[in-house]
């Protein structure tokens, strides 16, 4: 496992795609910080202030598509180059190969989020000040959003490890996250955790909105929804852990029986 991880991290450090995504997240953090500053100046005329809370978790809405692209192309290359087959021939167990790839994708995604967080904090704090929420709420929301990032990574690792065609896995992953993100935005407009009507249809929609990683990403990153209730964050966190466990179990089971040509 250690050798597999070392090999993956070495490839990742040389990946132009990963470097490009890091630069994208840094620029996104800069744009978000100055965007908050621009809103802050506008709201000052009305006696209101805008803090960094609105954009602090903006990485949640970006990481899905970035992880989809990275995992499909990074892992798909192992199929197209024959690296996946060679790992098995060298005696590596398939379960170790799967977990090493999953861990690599997770750490890469979390690193991209870290670049955004550091950038938006360093640039935005002097302009509008740091987030105003308590340390406990910040930590819990970061923990929940990290869990959703891990869920994203597990889903896309499943797709990339099952689909040997790099282009096919990229299309499925990117198209899937795009469609479900659009659905999540629509559900975000419809659902309201402060004024819930409590009807069966509404409860069903809110469940799926909080269960799917795309729905969680929209809720964490929504500019006007940064004060999520604690119990709501815990529900989303547990949902992410469930999605991660199920998709990983399914992915390992399929990959173990897959014929690597």
Structure description:
- With 261 residues, the protein is an all-alpha fold.
- The protein has helices spanning 2-14, 16-44, 53-56, 60-80, 83-89, 94-128, 135-162, 166-190, 200-211, 213-221, 230-256.
- The model has no long low-confidence stretch (mean pLDDT 86).
Counting helices, strands and paired strands, the structural category is mainly alpha
Largest sheet: none
Label the overall shape: globular
Which stretches are poorly predicted, pLDDT < 50 over at least 5 residues? none
Distance between the termini: 22 Å
Based on CA atoms alone, the radius of gyration comes out at 20 Å
Question: Which percent band covers the strand fraction?
Answer: under 5%
Helix count equals 11
* Mean pLDDT rating: 86
- Helical amount among residues, as a percent range? over 70%
> What is the element string, with H for helices and E for strands?
HHHHHHHHHHH
Topology, number of strands: 0
